[in-house]
Hints:
The chain is α+β, with helices and mostly antiparallel strands and about 90 residues long.
Amino acid sequence: MKIENASALVTGADRGHYHPQRSQRSMFTADHLNRIGVDHLPGRLGIVITYVGPSEVRSELPVHPSLMAPNGFLHAASVIALADNKGLVH
């Protein structure tokens, strides 16, 4: 099976995360999050956030050989990095 790209859909509440710098829930746009991620891991991996909603974040990761494990599967760290971007919003 050939994987050409990966995507993540993360939904749900904050699950108890507390952000003292944000007393009220703030809504970031996908464009804003993509801009601030350019020089960080999400940008380096090519992760693009495509949608940010009140309880949902969607993102995509173009899969290329450098993200693959030696066994030919998508490296678990790539998948974790894709899913971890949810933390930017909540």
